[in-house]
Amino acid sequence: MDFIVAGFIKAIELLISGDTSTWTAVWATIKVSTCSMLLSIGAGLPCGFLLGYFDFKGKKHLRTILDTMLAFPTVFIGLMVYAFISRQGPMGELGLLFTLTGIAIGQTILAFPIVTAITASTIENIDHDFKLTLVTLGAGKRHIITTCLWEVRFGILAAAVTAYGRVLTEVGISMMVGGNIKYHTRTITTAIALETNKGLFADGIALGLVLIMIAFIVNLSLSFLRKQ
Amino acid sequence: MTQKEITYHLKDIQHYYGNTKVLDIADLKIKKGSITGLIGPNGSGKSTLLKLLAFAQKPTRGNIFYKGRIELPFSPTVRSKVTLLTQKPYLLKRTVFENIAYGLKIRKDKKHLKERVKKALLTVGLDDQKFAVRKWHELSGGEAQRVSMAARLILKPEVLLLDEPIASVDTESAGLIRKASLKARDNWGATLVIASHDLQWLYSISDRQLSIFKGNIFSTGLENIITGPFLKSGIKSDGKTLVKKLDDGQIITLKAPGKKTCTAVVIRKKNIAISLEKQLDNGLLNQLSGHIVSMLLEEKKEIIMATISIHNLAFILRLTSDQISRINLYPGKKVILKFHPNDVEWI
Question: Which ipTM value was assigned to this complex?
């Protein structure tokens, strides 16, 4: 029990002293997860809208595939991305292996189905009188789409928060694609795994605290936005 | 009616949901500046008709002429001129002000927006200071209905379609909605079509009433409909009569329909007589015993609409004040309704 308490104390010391290895991992995490989130929202939002708003042939099958993608283990995504961007892979020439960009690609693949599925469900659950009301108020197709997206903004925020939580805490992709290189591709989660293996619990707990803090700040900001 | 006086002309309209026919109207004209009331039980096709009139849906078959031209959903000609207030209006997840101003904003008509919203709120009896800043979830059912009404009135539409506008509102709100509807017609000549189950309210506001049953408009005004099951009559059976047995032992005899597809019978008000005593040696004449349950005054025509309960069936008759006083009718009084089995129409 003592070593856990000592770990918390050491954690605070590490953060206050501005320990380089700790802070580079923090920045790498923030950079890579924010980038992957922006990409997954950019792609997932329109896909989710199309899937939720329109009825078309094969929609059910597409939903099944998407739901399956939600359960993809991060190590499998890491493995696939690794296979594609490694030297002998089809995208090997781009030199993305063991880079933050490589991790961002993997995390985008992880977050995309979450954003898409939650957006689609939110759009599907919108009141069935919504479209009729807008049409009878004189809205054209463009207005209906933009108003619809604005109406489900809280659902989209929830999708973003859920996806952010997933990419922030994943280890498999960062470890396999990033390689856990100190001062370069080491993220908070891979650093925690490494420090724990080395028996340096204080460093692990410090990084864990930062991870929780980031998640807290993100949720707090979104909650503030929601109130606005 | 001249062409100019007609806002709507529905021709050979048929509408289906899947394989089920929900509307079948051969010919219907709605006059400009008129207030038309739609009467009918749930599922009779009133809401579907309103959606078609709002150009929110395209009829499966047939054409809707709007001011002499065939129009379709999303047509720019009608999009900004026809508006529908649905039974459960959807409020955008915004403030009351934003909800009311939405229609004007999408039309890029933002002149004197504040004053116009204020005026629209006042028309439906809501205080601008108190309500404009309220969010959509801070309204009661009646207030939400009135805000939705204001969101339509602010557009000054040529056609205002109201689907059960007073279904979930209090008496005061019902009065305000009535006043606002009449104002729309009187101030800018709007044409109104209103579906409502509240017959007294509907009769007090509308110029004419259309009865809808199973998607068919079969009369102007309220008519009496009896639905099955119907049985073959025993003793009197010549294959041409059917009977409906009521749980209290009374029997209604009806001329059998020509077509097997008919499932309900209409008995026109004019074919029903009311008296206090049964007639002896009546032959096939139906003589049903019941009680007057309500009497409503149709203000516009000075006619009294009496509802008579015959076991679990409700019959409606329109009576003059002379008829009422001659046999001294009042709610609760026992009466006899008489009609001949041949004086029925199958639908």
Answer: 0.73
